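Re: [help] complex structure
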Amino acid sequence: GAGVSQTPSNKVTEKGKYVELRCDPISGHTALYWYRQSLGQGPEFLIYFQGTGAADDSGLPNDRFFAVRPEGSVSTLKIQRTERGDSAVYLCASSLDSETDTQYFGPGTRLTVL
Amino acid sequence: AQSVTQPDIHITVSEGASLELRCNYSYGATPYLFWYVQSPGQGLQLLLKYFSGDTLVQGIKGFEAEFKRSQSSFNLRKPSVHWSDAAEYFCAVVGGGSNYKLTFGKGTLLTVNP
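Output below.
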C-alpha cells in the first residue's frame, strides 16, 4: 500500500514568511510524528499525535512552530515568521497504534529559508 | 536523557567486504534500539529493532545487529556489502519514560567501492 507522503518535497521561502508543511500518514495509522533533520545531524523529535490530539509537543523549539491534525489523519506543520535557522528537512512518520509500533517515515520536506 | 553516539561519520568499504557500523547508547535501563537507513530522496527505512530477548537481531537486506549491555553497544553488521547498500545509517533509541520518542545518532555515511 501507499507509504507516508509529504508535500511539498522542497520549499524555499524568505525570512519572516509563513509556511505550511503537509503529511499524509499511512491509512489507518493513529499515531503521527514530526521530526526535524538539520544538515549533518540525525532527526530530532518535534511532536507526537495520537488521533487528533497532540500527546507530546515537547520537541517544538518555540512558539513559532505549531502542528495540527484535525481529523486524525493528515497533519500540517506550521511555521510562523521563519528564520534562516529553520532550514532543515522536516520528516513525518506514522505508526499503527501503540507507541512501540514501528514508525514509518515519509521522504521529508526540505525547507530553505533565505 | 538518553543519547546515541555513532563514532564513524564516514566509512568506505569495497563491494563484497564485510561491514560493521558502531553505535553506543547512554541510558540507564534496557532501551529499545533501532537501525534505520536513509537513501537520497528516500525516507528513513527500518532495518531492524531490539526490544528484548535474543541479543542478536536479524533484519532486512541481510543486516544483523547485536545488543551488548556490558558495552552499551548495538553494532550493525553485514557479511558482504552490495553497491546498493551505499546510504546513510542511523542508530536510534527509545526510552527515558517515552515509548515513542526516537533519539537518533548523527549517522554514518557508507560509501561502497566497486
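The first strand of chain B starts at residue 3 and ends at 5.
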